[in-house]
Specification:
Elements: E1 5-8, E2 14-18, H1 28-40, E3 43-46, H2 53-63, E4 82-86, E5 112-119, E6 127-131, H3 132-137, H4 141-147, E7 151-155, H5 157-160, E8 186-190, E9 192-194, E10 201-203, E11 210-213, H6 218-232, E12 238-241, E13 248-252, E14 256-260, E15 269-276, E16 282-283
Parallel strand pairs: 2-3
Antiparallel strand pairs: 1-2, 3-13, 4-15, 5-13, 5-15, 6-12, 6-14, 7-8, 7-11, 9-10, 9-16
The structure holds succinic acid (SIN).
């Protein structure tokens, strides 16, 4: 087994891991310990890595089956890697800049996202996270109990549908986004889910893909979702990840939401991203 050291961040749910070279295959005992560390720290940063799409894909393959990434074209030759790219002169809205959990509109949304900083701007471009476990625990017991009886409706239509954000996109966007009528489909997931590995309850709604609460009128859904979104992203539940070149971030979409920030106009930002398959969200 290869030993590694964890350096927790003040927020309590993120940590930097030192001591592993992800360009090399990891033995089974190390992978088991890594999974346990990720359960404790759902936002895990591997500093000082030397990865490219091939190495990122090889690392992802050791952790489990890949997820399905439907609306961004994969890199040629790397079916499980997409680029999150923004050129220095791009003016299109920043990809992923509203709070979301990756692909939560899928029947089995991804467990993990792996994001590698290949070209990191000298300033800005941080990724923000919010902690679903803490947000869930921070609700009153009665409201939480009622929310456990509810399902959120998740859809990619507002983003990737024919009338969605990316259908009206700015021609300067360098990412290869795929707009499709498939995005009109929706899935229902528990508003509070039980994490399949930690067994803990976590809030599972997000601003981008949760479009309603099943069984409620649209105005009722809107009011409750707006409250939950504001609650989920309270400053005390947030963590800001400041990128260094060569960092790989692995986050758990089942219990955190995230967004990409700007502030790096005039600089290029290039990340490689893979997702790992998840399971159908369990009720709490
Ligand atoms: C994403 O939402 O996957 C992208 C996050 C980032 O670019 O920081």
């Amino acid at each position: 087994m290869t030993d590694f050291v964890l350096e927790p961040a003040a927020c309590g749910y993120a940590a930097t891991l030192h001591g592993l070279d992800l360009a090399q295959p990891l033995d089974e005992a190390t992978l088991v310990r890594l999974r346990a560390a990720w359960r404790d720290y759902p936002v895990l940063c591997f500093a000082g890595q030397d990865l490219d799409p091939a190495r990122l894909q090889a690392f992802g393959a050791q952790l489990g089956p890949f997820g399905d990434d439907p609306y961004v074209a994969a890199l040629p030759g790397f079916p499980h890697v997409i680029e999150v790219r923004r050129e220095a002169r791009e003016t299109a809205p920043i990809f992923g800049s509203q709070w979301h959990s990756d692909w939560s509109f899928q029947a089995t949304p991804p467990s993990a996202t792996l994001l590698y900083g290949a070209e990191v701007p000298p300033l800005g471009g941080d990724t923000l996270f919010a902690n679903g476990y803490a947000a869930c625990a921070g609700l009153s017991a009665d409201f939480r109990a009622w929310l456990k009886t509810r399902h959120g409706v998740h859809s990619a239509a507002p983003s990737y549908g024919p009338q969605g954000l990316f259908a009206r996109d700015d021609a300067t966007r360098s990412m290869r986004i795929i707009v499709s009528a498939d995005a009109e489909r929706s899935e229902r997931h528990p508003v509070i889910r039980r994490h399949a590995e930690s067994g803990r309850e976590t809030l599972y709604v997000n601003h981008v893909y949760t479009v309603g609460i099943e069984g409620l009128r649209q105005d009722e859904s809107r009011a409750i979702l707006d409250y939950l979104f504001a609650h989920f992203t309270r400053p005390e539940y947030q963590y800001r990840h400041r990128w260094q070149p060569g960092s790989l971030l692995m986050w758990d979409n089942r219990c955190v939401i995230h967004l990409a920030t700007g502030g790096y106009e005039g600089h290029r930002r290039l990340m490689y991203r893979s997702t790992l398959a998840g399971e159908r969200p369990l009720p709490a």
